[in-house]
Amino acid sequence: MAEIWLNKARRFRDYAREDLVNNRYDSAAFFAQQSVELLIKGLLIKLGGSRPITHSTSELLQYLMRLIGKEAPQEVVRCAESLEQHYVQARYPDSRINDYRRWEAEEAVKCMDLVWDYVQQVVGGTQ
Length: 127
Description:
Blueprint: H1 2-21, H2 25-48, H3 57-68, H4 74-83, H5 85-89, H6 102-122
Helix pairs in contact: 1-2, 1-6, 2-3, 2-6, 3-4, 4-6
């Protein structure tokens, strides 16, 4: 079951990167958030047998860190918190005033990569 979540997380990571390159900034930010959410949920299932029902990437990161007995660096926590806004704002046209800009998508993809790199370092097996 966990591998299904991790495979989808990997696909969404690819989508985020591709959409950034193709100037689809809202979907790049959304897929960055989704990739991290599914990555951590997959690891929680793999390591603990279940996952919480939340879309909060920072909350999920806290669960994972408690499960493995580590504390995430502040930059990783900040990125997990930053990604949360894209779950709603990138999906709903009336949730913000302006269209997504390149710098927002770049920041989301950068944060996605930072969280992925950290999680791979402390948990492993996510590629």
